[in-house]
Every structure is written in C-alpha cells, then in structure tokens.
Amino acid sequence: MNKILRDTLGQINVQDYVIEIPIEPEFTSYRRTENPEGASQYAARYNTSGINCFYIAMDDETAQHEIRFKFDNKEPYQLEGDSIFAFDAGRFATDFSLSQALTGSQEDGGYDFCQTLANYLTETEGLTGIFYPSRQMAMQDKSGFCIALLPQTHQLIDGKLKIFKKRA
C-alpha cells in the first residue's frame, strides 16, 4: 500500500488538496497538564515514535472520542490564531479510492498508511497540517474531523507550540 500511496502522491499537485481551516472556538485538544504546549511523541495515527505531533479535534465530542475518554492528566485546550493550512486527507482518499486505508485500524495498516502520508507531506512538501475524518467518531456512526500538526523541531519555540489556550 505504501508504494501505491507514494506513487499516487507523486502524480498529483499536493497543493490542490491544501485547504485553509479558520480556527473556531470549538476546536479542542486535550493536552497533558504537565506540558500543555509540548508535542506528543508517542506513536499514533499520524506520527511514529519520537516525531512531534499535536492532535486537534474540531469539537469537544470528537476530542473525547479520539482520546477514548482517557482523561488522566489531560485538560481541554482551545486554539489561538486565525487559521491552519492543512492537506485534506479525506478528499484525497475519496478521490483515489483510499478511504478504507485512511480510516483503517492500526491492525489493518491504517496507522502505517497515515504515517506514510504524513512523512511524505512533511519531508517532500514541507506541509505540517493534515485534516482528516475521525475514525473514533465514525465507529459511533457520527461525523467528526481532526487536524494533525507535525511541526519540525525548528518550528517550535523551546520545543513547544504556543497556539493552545486553556479552555475556560
């Protein structure tokens, strides 16, 4: 699948799939209380172990489903700023019949697919944002969307991304 994905990405103009997402007050990211502006470097859907990633949901319900209601040492934060530019992974996957791979479970290769996509976009295209449908919401027959931000180390300030504000 990774070869198919890389070949497909190599044949398109990636910028055709980049969208501007205005930041809304509902956007939520559950952040660790001890380091709310620090990146997660645990392997997850869009990042391998050791790679900076910030996961943001379009609303609190989606965020809760994404963290699977594991609230230990986590608090909700909202985003500050005007907008985020991100690759629309859902539209890309639909256009090329790759939706199953995009939303697949870790066991079915979904993480590998998404991590390959993220690596290609950050390393080849310099993109750090990916807009994607929430697998956890889909499993509940609901719709929800998320953004994965994968900034390179030099884009962080003292290892932190200063776009989060604790939700009141």
Give the SSE layout:
Layout: H1 2-11, E1 18-22, E2 29-32, E3 54-57, H2 60-66, E4 74-79, E5 83-88, H3 89-95, H4 99-102, H5 110-124, E6 129-133, H6 135-138, E7 145-149, E8 164-166
Parallel strand pairs: 5-6
Antiparallel strand pairs: 1-5, 2-4, 3-7, 4-8, 6-7
Description of the molecule:
The relative contact order is 0.24. This protein is globular. With 168 residues, it is an alpha+beta fold. The strands form 2 sheets. Strands 1-5-6-7-3 form a 5-stranded mixed beta sheet. A 3-stranded antiparallel beta sheet has the order 2-4-8, covered by helices on one side. The protein contains 6 helices and 8 strands, in the order H-E-E-E-H-E-E-H-H-H-E-H-E-E. The protein is 28% helix and 23% strand. The chain has one domain. The model has no long low-confidence stretch (mean pLDDT 93).
Structural class determined from secondary elements:
alpha+beta
Tally of discrete structural domains: 1
* Portion in helices: 25-40%
What's the N-to-C terminus distance?
43 Å
> What can be said about the biggest beta sheet?
5 strands, mixed
Instruction: Give, in order, the helices and strands.
Output: HEEEHEEHHHEHEE
Tally the helices: 6
